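User: Teach me something about this protein's shape.
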Amino acid sequence: MLLPAMCSALSVLRPSQVAIIINGNNSQSIKLGEYYAKARHIPLANMIELNLPYNAQVITAPFYDARVAAAIRQILTVRHLRSQIRCLVTTYGIPLKVGPQSTTFADMAEVNHLRGRLVKIQANLRAAIKQLNAMDGLTPSEVPVPHHLTVLANGKLRTSAYHTALRCKATLAQTLAFFNHNPSAKTSAGNTELLALYRHCLGIAVMAQSLHVHGRSLQSMEMEDFLRQARKKSLIAVREYDMLKVHRYKPANRRAMRHLKRRFFGLVGEAIEDISQITYLLHVHSKSSLDSDLMMLWYGHILHSDWYQNPIQLENWHANLAAFHPRIMMVSRIDGLNIQMVEAMIARGLRVEAGGLRGKVYIDARGLHGTGPYSQFDRLLRHTAAMLKLEAKIPVVLNDVPALFKRADSPDCAVYCGWYSVHHFVNCCQWVPGFVGYHVASFELDSLHNPTDTAWCINLLKHKACGTSGPVWEPYLFSFPQPNLFIPLLLSGRYPQVEVYTVSTPVMAWRQAYVGDPLYNPFRHDPRFSQANIRGSHTLRKVFDVKNAWIPLREFKLKYILKHY
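Assistant: First, the predicted structure itself:
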């Protein structure tokens, strides 16, 4: 279903909206930038020359802020291109990675303050667990800390506090269930005490979503009204929290975020927020991809300490928050072992675009059917394959066993997504020149200049890919482009690959990057998928136009296929 005036509002990237970033100290970078500008008819005014080391792969965060991001902002502003440029192309000679950030004295002082708060919160949570156990005589089993929380909370105090917060939450749920299923235990005093603990530990936001009032007594009606008002206030608080998080580098914003979590999500929410802020201030996750950092060019300042949610990723986008984000830049890299390899990739893409990309879609799952995050991603791959088989006008091949595809059995690969052969490329398909594909595994974009590298990105480029994606450091599974969005949008032929990547990648200022001509659109003249049939987790709307005004691009009627995968 098209929204009003939707067709005229489509925002497909044009060459005049692309800026090419070159290293003025690297003649190969300059030559490649000029070649690409001529090939794609990009105005020379859109060429941005930076003063960078000859061929450095890693730079520091302060160097990035001053010599890369600030320089690009200044040049675009002086040339009056700020509102015009939507995409940045990094080239051979532009650094690939931004190294670890150091913790300042002010950051460390705030960390010590938060640690002190966390000790007190943990003591209060333990007291609440003890009080709950005394109420019903239950002794809940231990609640293990999920792996992704353990990663975030590395450090003895933070891991222990996470464990306590989660155990308190589980105990409250168990106690509430006990009361609900044992009418004799529902004394007025017991219920009052339980609700007070529930509100103290989990806050009115969780309370409003979890509690259900039965009966029509005056007391029940008053509770119903309280919960209804709490839901409204909680929604406003969540939006306010998300707005503050956009500029989390400000100490005042972090204080306000802690206050909101305490008020609406109780001691558990406050503990988790304090742990998150300690992790942020200690720069535990401070290494990133330069290209991913450039997505946040117009934020002005980013604290290189964590990923940021990408507000224009299709399943992140929310109309109420859209206006509070600066423009997100699309970023793609034209890079490889040498500039001859990159020029050949650009030329190949132009030829393929003219004639169309013929072949099959190969999706390589692992046969996982559990409940963990790996099984969930495997399920997403199967969902994507099922969706494409129903709707796409292109053959789709799913491999749902631990072993990768076998080259002899996998001809004509035009689009590929698979996993999980870490930093070990396997020539598993017969690749069609100009294919687009990425392998979900760690460190696959560790380097583009090492001829003996066994990572997937450089080897896919060697086998004549025109687009691929990968992480420069350990990225965690959640950060990869979502295949159920990336592949159908690419097949639709409506958008060049950099737009497809941008609206399908969940985070920014993190460790993923995209390699390929950003304007490459292999299905432009021969679409193989109707955009209206894309299926995700909920109704989605998108993004912003060239004037930096947020607009609904299209409403997807998204429904999961109600079948066993």
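Now, about its shape. The longest strand covers residues 431-439. The chain has two domains: 6-100+308-533, 134-281. If you'd like, I can walk through any region in more detail.
User: That's plenty for now, thanks!
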